[in-house]
Amino acid sequence: MSRRLQTQKEEKLENIAKKTAEKVSKTGKRISLEPMSAADRRIVHMTLAESKNVSTQSRGEGMHRKVVINPVNDND
What we know:
Elements: H1 3-27, E1 31-32, H2 38-48, E2 54-59, E3 66-71
Helix pairs in contact: 1-2
């Protein structure tokens, strides 16, 4: 994959992660993303790593592994 296409893919994943995190923050309900490769999951995790409103975790096995974005409880 060319560097330009790779960058576009990363930007798309970052946008999906941010938009989904916004929904999770507003609704207070977790959202599971579609299954994706380990490299793609890493981009999502890193994009949201500094967020105070959501946390991420990978769930599932093999080709079915996906990122789950969870709301963070403000009562801590």
